[in-house]
Design brief:
Elements (H helix, E strand, L loop, with lengths): L1 E5 L4 H12 L3 E5 L10 E4 L13 E4 L12 H24 L6 E7 L10 E2 L9 H14 L7 E7 L1 E3 L5 H5 L7 E5 L5 E2 L1 E3 H13 L5 E5 L5 E2 H9 L6 E5 L1 H8 L1 H7 L4 E2 L2 H5 L9 H8 L12
Parallel strand pairs: 1-2, 1-4, 2-3, 4-5, 5-7, 6-15, 7-12, 8-11, 9-14
Antiparallel strand pairs: 10-13
Helix pairs in contact: 1-5, 2-3, 7-8
C-alpha cells in the first residue's frame, strides 16, 4: 500500500513509519520539519506536493500540538485546536481532489473525549462530560468523520497515555526520580489509561487491515492503573528515598487548567472494540510494559533504552 502519515516524525508517527516501511509499504510523511531521507519514505511539507492522480490507499493523521507541553493559556488553547482542525481540514480537501478516494482514514483523538467519569469503566459507547479536552476531541473527531461522506472508512483512534523509551509522557513523569523522589499527581487515586507505544503501532496496523472496523476505537491497554499505581511500579526501577504525591493545589498553581484535566483527573478506559475484534496486546499490564521499556537500564527509570 501507499500511505500518507501526518505527524510521521513524532513520538508515535516515527515508530509507525518504521513499522510500515519494514512491511514493504510506501509512506509519504507530512511534516513541518526539514525533509529527511529514508528508504521507502517520501517527506513533504505541504499536501500541495501530492498530485491528484497519486494512488494513496490510506491516511493516518497524527498531527497536533502536545496537550501536555505547556500551561493552557488562551493562545495555546487556540493552537491546540487549530493544529488539529486545520490539518484535518487540509486532509479532507486532499481526499476530495484525489482521483481515487483513499480507502481508510485513521484519525488520532484522545481519551480526553470522555471527560471526567470517576471510577466508571469507559468503552467506546460511553458518554462524554464537558471540559476543554472533551470539546477539543469532539471537534477534531467531527471534522475527521466528514471523510466518510465520500466513502472513506474513518477510525477515530482515542489514545491513552503512550509510554515508551526515548520521549513522550514517561520522560516527563520520571523527572522527580532524578532527585530520588518517586512521585505522582495529587492523591494518586485518579485513573490513568496508558498504552505501550509498540501496541499503539500494532493497533494502527491492525486497523489499516480490518476494513470492518470504523468509528471510535480506544487505543489503551486493557488494564488501566491509578496514578499512584504507576508511580509505585516505576519505583521498582529506581531506589527513591521518598515516595510522595505532589499536592493538588501545587499542581494547579504550577500548571493551571492543564493539571486539573490531565493530571488530577483521569479516565478508566478499556479497549472494547480492539479486543472484540481479536486484537491481542503485547503489554496488557503496566508491569510487563515497564519491564520491556527498562530491560537494558534496570537501575534508572529516567534513562530507558
Amino acid at each position: 500500500m501507499q500511505l500518507l502519515v501526518s505527524g510521521g516524525t513524532g513520538f508515535i508517527g516515527s515508530a509507525l513509519v518504521q513499522a510500515l516501511t519494514h512491511q514493504g509499504h510506501e509512506v509519504i510523511v507530512l511534516t513541518r520539519q526539514a525533509p529527511g531521507s529514508c528508504d521507502g519514505v517520501r517527506f513533504i511539507q505541504s499536501l500541495d506536493a501530492i498530485e491528484a492522480n497519486e494512488p494513496i490507499d490510506a491516511i493516518v493523521n497524527l498531527a497536533g500540538a502536545s496537550l501536555a507541553a505547556k500551561r493552557w493559556s488562551g493562545a495555546y488553547k487556540r493552537e491546540l485546536l487549530s493544529s488539529r482542525i486545520d490539518t484535518t481540514r487540509d486532509i479532507l480537501a486532499l481526499i476530495r481532489r484525489l482521483q481515487r478516494t483513499p480507502q481508510t482514514l485513521l484519525s488520532a483523538s484522545a481519551i480526553g473525549y470522555y471527560g471526567h467519569h470517576g471510577d466508571a469503566k469507559l468503552a467506546e459507547d460511553a458518554g462524554s462530560n464537558p471540559c476543554f479536552s472533551q470539546q477539543l476531541c469532539q471537534a477534531w473527531e467531527a471534522q475527521a468523520m466528514e471523510a466518510s461522506a465520500g466513502g472513506t472508512r474513518v477510525c477515530l483512534t482515542r489514545f491513552g497515555v503512550v509510554l515508551d523509551a526515548g520521549g513522550g509522557a514517561l520522560t516527563e513523569m520520571t523527572r522527580s526520580f532524578r532527585l530520588g523522589v518517586g512521585s505522582w499527581a495529587g492523591s494518586g487515586s485518579q485513573w490513568m489509561s496508558w498504552v505501550q507505544r509498540a501496541d499503539v503501532v500494532r493497533a494502527l496496523q491492525f486497523l489499516l487491515e480490518r476494513d470492518d472496523i470504523a468509528g471510535p476505537v480506544n487505543v489503551t491497554a486493557p488494564v488501566p492503573v491509578t496514578a499512584r499505581g504507576l508511580g509505585e511500579a516505576l519505583c521498582e526501577y529506581s531506589a527513591p528515598v521518598l515516595r510522595v504525591g505532589v499536592p493538588a493545589p501545587v499542581m494547579r498553581l504550577m500548571l493551571g487548567e492543564m493539571a486539573e484535566e490531565l493530571l488530577l483527573h483521569g479516565q478508566r478506559v478499556v479497549p472494547a472494540v480492539l479486543e472484540e475484534a481479536g486484537f491481542r496486546f503485547l503489554y496488557p499490564q503496566i508491569e510487563e510494559a515497564l519491564a520491556a521499556i527498562y530491560a537494558d537500564e534496570p537501575s534508572s527509570p529516567t534513562s530507558p533504552r
